[in-house]
Design brief:
By secondary structure, the chain is of the alpha/beta class. The protein is built from 7 helices and 7 strands; from the N terminus they run E-H-E-E-H-E-H-E-H-H-E-H-H-E. The longest helix is centred in the middle third of the chain and has 29 residues, at 90-118. The structure holds NADPH dihydro-nicotinamide-adenine-dinucleotide phosphate. The site of NADPH dihydro-nicotinamide-adenine-dinucleotide phosphate (NDP) has 30 residues, from helix 1, strand 2 and helix 3.
């Protein structure tokens, strides 16, 4: 039976790949992004800024009315505003925290209510290896993504009795617009990533599909890397 799957940040990159993957599995995929675009086959794509708490809960209510409550929520929307901490502006800090952490909380909270009532569901946060590696220039991003781990683990305990799993995927360097300026195909990738290449958005999508599947029903509160060995279990 097809599920309703919510994906945030689905207009491009990893979120688009995840959406395509669930569409291919026959699921009803609904998405949020600021542009409100999504890959072909997505049932409905709304233009919503996830840092706007009210907009997120209104969007979830209207999507649920039309398609049913999401059984899977992939909380993927994220941005970077890199810069060394000494020169990082308040705006750079706040913008990243507002989207990558506040937005993730608003989305998960809105999705969880119906899951608790249904006594089933899966929340998948897209984190990063950044907080485990300690990447210079990413104090804001690393703080937000580290925050996701704490958020996921607290939620995992809160909803485990309702058979809802909550996990974090920690991608390494994945070829998308976000990493375009890092010259990801250069020699850095070959020497620092054990598997010798940057990842593809589909590598992350495959893991998301697994964590949402029945085969992963005994996995919760986990942080699962998909990084070609970049962080090697840190
Ligand atoms: P992209 O920049 O390609 O895509 C980001 C997506 O998030 C877009 O669809 C964008 O859509 C959406 N988005 C950004 N801000 C908001 C917002 N405020 N409200 C709603 N949607 C928003 O990045 P990636 O696909 O590479 O990244 C996806 C996730 O994976 C992020 O959380 C990122 O931190 C994480 N990640 C990526 C890695 C990589 O190497 N690429 C490594 C580790 C983690 P729109 O502009 O339409 O709003």
């Amino acid at each position: 039976m097809s599920r309703v799957v919510l994906v945030t940040g689905a207009s491009q990159g990893i979120g688009a790949a995840i959406s395509r993957r669930f569409v291919a599995l026959g699921d009803v995929v609904v998405t949020l992004s600021r542009r409100g675009t999504a890959p072909e086959g997505v049932a409905e794509a709304l233009a919503v800024d996830v840092s706007d708490s009210e907009a997120v809960s209104t969007a979830l209510k209207s999507l649920t009315e039309r398609h049913g409550a999401p059984e899977v929520a992939v909380v993927n929307a994220g941005i970077t505003r890199d810069g060394l901490a000494l020169r990082m502006s308040d705006a750079q800090w706040r913008e990243v925290l507002a989207t990558d952490l506040d937005g993730a909380f608003y989305t998960a909270r809105a999705a969880l209510g119906p899951m608790v009532r249904a006594r089933r569901g899966s929340i998948i946060f897209i984190g990063s290896v950044s907080p485990f590696l300690g990447v210079p220039g990413q104090a804001n991003y690393a703080a937000a993504k580290a925050g996701l781990v704490g958020l996921a683990r607290a939620l995992a305990r809160e909803v485990a009795s309702r058979s809802i799993t909550v996990n974090v995927i920690a991608p390494g360097l994945i070829a998308t617009d976000m990493t375009r300026d890092l010259a990801p195909d250069g020699p850095v990738a070959a020497t620092t990533i054990p598997l010798g290449r940057v990842g593809e958005a589909d590598d992350v999508a495959a893991l998301a599909a697994f964590l949402a599947s029945d085969g992963a029903r005994y996995i919760t509160g986990a942080v699962v890397p998909v990084d070609g060995g970049l962080a090697l279990g840190l």
